[in-house]
Design a protein that fits this description.
94 residues; 3 strands; three-stranded antiparallel beta sheet; Double Stranded RNA Binding Domain
Length: 94
């Protein structure tokens, strides 16, 4: 990606972009996703009482299947273990 396309107004600029790329990579590896799978990573403000201020949401779309996981941390604080735990918890039938 050319530097001309980097959103300089984004919070913390390129470091946020690097966090997104890293989280997407972890999700692809952990879920053994094919290249055509779409992985979206977003950071949202959480307004639920007692919830941390930031939440990272990972959405995976592959064919007609979709999966998502939420991590109650800011994107830049998410670890590979967080991603693994979030998708493990999302797939557990309760």
């Amino acid at each position: 990606m050319s530097e001309a396309f980097v959103n300089q107004l984004a919070r913390n600029g390129p470091s946020v972009i690097n966090s997104v790329r890293t989280i997407k990579s972890w999700a692809r590896k952990l879920l053994s996703l094919r290249d055509e799978a779409v992985v979206s990573v977003s950071e949202l403000a959480c307004h639920v009482p007692g919830c941390p201020l930031r939440e990272t949401v990972i959405l995976v779309m592959q064919g007609t299947e979709t999966a998502h996981a939420s991590i109650h941390k800011a994107m830049m604080d998410v670890t590979e273990d967080d991603v693994a735990h979030a998708f493990s918890a999302a797939s557990d039938p309760d």
